[in-house]
Amino acid sequence: MTFDLRRGNDLPMVIRLMLCLSLLLPVASAAERIKELNTYWAEVSRAVKAGDFEGYKATCHPDGVLISGKKKTSYLLAKALEIWKPGIDATKAGKVKAAVDFRFSKRWGDPKTAHEIGMFRYQHVDEKGVAKTEYIHLEALLVKRGRWLILMENQKSSGTKEEWESLKK
Predict the structure, then answer these.
(1) Pairing mode of beta strands 131-144, 73-76
(2) Which residues contact 5 (CB under 8 A, 6 or more apart)?
(3) Which of 33, 50, 157, 164 is the most buried (most CB within 10 A)?
(4) Least confident residue range of 6-15, 60-69, 85-94, 159-168
(5) What is the 3-state secondary structure (H, E, C) of 45-67?
C-alpha cells in the first residue's frame, strides 16, 4: 500500500493509521515490561533456590526498603540481606532447602517503573527435614536502571493457600 500525500486525499487514511499504531504502543510496551518482570522474578526464585547470595543481592536496589506488616517495621533491604545471608548460605551449602515463587493480581507501570501486587510462596526445609510453607501478601515497587531492581518490598501480611491458588500463575 502506498500513499500519495501530494494529492491530499490519502491524508485522513495516514492519520487514522498513525492513530491506530499509537494506540498499540502502550500494549506492546506493557507486554514487554511484564515479560521483563517475569524474568526478574524468575531470577529471584533461582537465586533463592540456589542459595546464590550475590545473585539475590543483584536484584535489589542499593537504597531498597523492606516493609514487614507482620513485624510492623521497615528497614533497608541491605539490612534484610545481612539477616537473610546465613540462611541463603545454608541453602547453598545444602544444609537447608528453600524456594520462592510469585503470583500477581495487579501489575502496573511504564517502561522504567513497576508496581506489582500479589503474593509469594516461600517453602523451606530446615536442617532437621521439617518443611514449612508460607504465603505472604506482597506489594513491590521496582525501577529499571539498565535492569529491574526492587526498590520497595512490602511483605504486607500472611496469606492462605486458597488466596494463593486464586491468583493467576
Answers:
(1) unpaired
(2) 11, 14
(3) 33
(4) 6-15
(5) HHHHHHCCHHHHHCCEEEEEEEE
Closest CA to 59 of 139, 119, 142: 142
- The residues, any chain, with a CB within 8 Å of residue 10's CB and separated by 6 or more, are 3, 4
List all residues 6 or more positions away from 111 whose beta carbon is below 8 Å from its beta carbon: 29, 32, 33, 144
> pLDDT tens, 85-136?
999 999 999 999 999 999 999 999 999 999 999 999 999 999 999 999 999 9
Angle subtended at Cα 164 by Cα 162 and Cα 165, rounded to the nearest 5 degrees: 65
In the chain the first and final C-alpha atoms are separated, in Å, by 42
Grid cell of 69 as nine digits: 506488616
For the chain, domains (ranges, CATH) are 11-166 (3.10.450.50)
Contact yes or no for 41/28 (Cβ under 8 A):
no
